[in-house]
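User: Teach me something about this protein's shape.
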Amino acid sequence: MGHPSLTRRLWLAFLLMAGLTLLSSLIGWFGFRFIAR
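Assistant: First, the predicted structure itself:
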């Protein structure tokens, strides 16, 4: 564990990507429901 900042950056990037994917899927699902109504 010589570079804690590197692992921290990796975790941040991973969480950001997961959050973006979840947000986009939620937005798409809500948009689909709103349009299908």
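Now, about its shape. Helices lie at 4-36. The mean pLDDT is 91. If you'd like, I can walk through any region in more detail.
User: That's plenty for now, thanks!
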